[in-house]
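>> Question from a student workshop board

For tomorrow's exercise we were told to take the sequence and the ligand below, predict the bound structure, and bring the output to class. My setup keeps failing. Could a helper post the expected result so I can at least see what it should look like? The ligand is biotin.
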Amino acid sequence: VGQNLVTIKQVDSTNSFLKNLLSNSTPVPEGTVIMAEEQYAGRGQQQNTWHSEPGKNLTFSLLLKPHFLAVGDQFDLNRAASLGVYDALQPILGEQLKIKWPNDIYYGDRKLGGMLIENTIQGGQLKDSVIGIGLNINQENFPSGASNATSVKQILQKDYELTLLLSEICNCLEVYYLKLKAGEVDFVRNTYLSRLYWLNEVKSFESNNRVFNGTVKNVLPNGLLVIEDTKGQQLEFNLKELKFL
Ligand code: BTN
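>> Workshop helper replied:
Here is what the output should look like for this input. Compare the format with yours to find the bug.
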């Protein structure tokens, strides 16, 4: 991953750019990384936009071809990608780094970055996976609407070399991807769970206009989050159904 690196000065979204190449049947080798200095229409999860100060942060997409994965196991790609980013950042940032389900990267209770993973399925098989990653690295100020955002610079008070970190992320992510490929799925799932923000803690959630307290217990193979409510009932949620309060 990352051997074939394309850097673009300005693009709408690296995910859209890579998806366009694929839909035009342009041959793109697995592991290709498209990195942008500036995205003017960066996309986040759940139709959100992703803002990032030009030249300061990492905004890139990489292509995987996980033909070996069952469609029902595609959440394992979220796990591998989150763990790759985690492992690259952990030596720099330490124990406060966490993965927030499904694939946000948190430092304490602030968001350092996130991912938008877009998979194509053809003939009931996973075909291409575009893994878009946005991480706040050297940005110092955030708009008031992003009040829980933070960056490596805000944490360490110094600049960090973007391409160095990018190659570290690619190497770490590849380790987990190859584990999936080798069938070591349980290792990837258990490691993901052990890095999860709020695991076994009581927190407030909102679903269906109902606020409740519960404990994050597990993430199912298909990616659903399991929360145990105060009556001991285990409830399963997807991202659309749940708000963290
Ligand atoms: C989120 O936290 O909502 C996900 C943010 C994902 C942003 C990255 S930046 C590179 C890639 N291109 C995009 O348009 N989005 C992802």
